[in-house]
Design goal:
- With about 100 residues, the chain is an alpha+beta fold.
- It is about 35% helix and about 25% strand.
- Strands 3-2-1-4 form a four-stranded mixed beta sheet, with helices on both faces.
- It is globular, with a radius of gyration of 13 Å.
Length: about 100
């Protein structure tokens, strides 16, 4: 079962705008057919805009907390610039789904 993000599109756009997100993509089980509504967490690949008044710490953890409240489940945020392992990046590229982009 896939997570239906269209139910959350307005709130996601609002959160991304408030936290200076340049690009947000869903990956992992929630973007594939093996998503477990009861147990799965959500994995997001994120790129923040560089010109935002809030600091990086506040944006990262503030957005993470709000996404966890919105979806009522644990959320992992992975910044694209932090990925050094090409195999991990390749695995993400295979099933990522664009959620938000400015």
């Amino acid at each position: 079962m896939k997570l239906n993000l269209s139910d959350y599109s307005d709130k996601l756009s609002s959160l991304c705008s408030a936290y200076g997100v340049k690009r947000l993509e869903l990956f992992g089980s929630a973007s594939r057919n093996d998503f477990d509504l009861e147990n799965s967490d959500l994995d997001f690949l994120i790129e923040f805009a560089s010109d935002h008044p809030k600091g990086a710490f506040d944006r990262y953890f503030g957005l993470k907390e709000e996404l966890e409240q919105l979806f009522q489940r644990p959320v992992d945020l992975v910044e694209i610039k932090a990925i050094k392992n090409p195999y991990f990046l390749q695995a993400i590229e295979q099933d990522k789904v664009l959620v938000y982009e400015t």
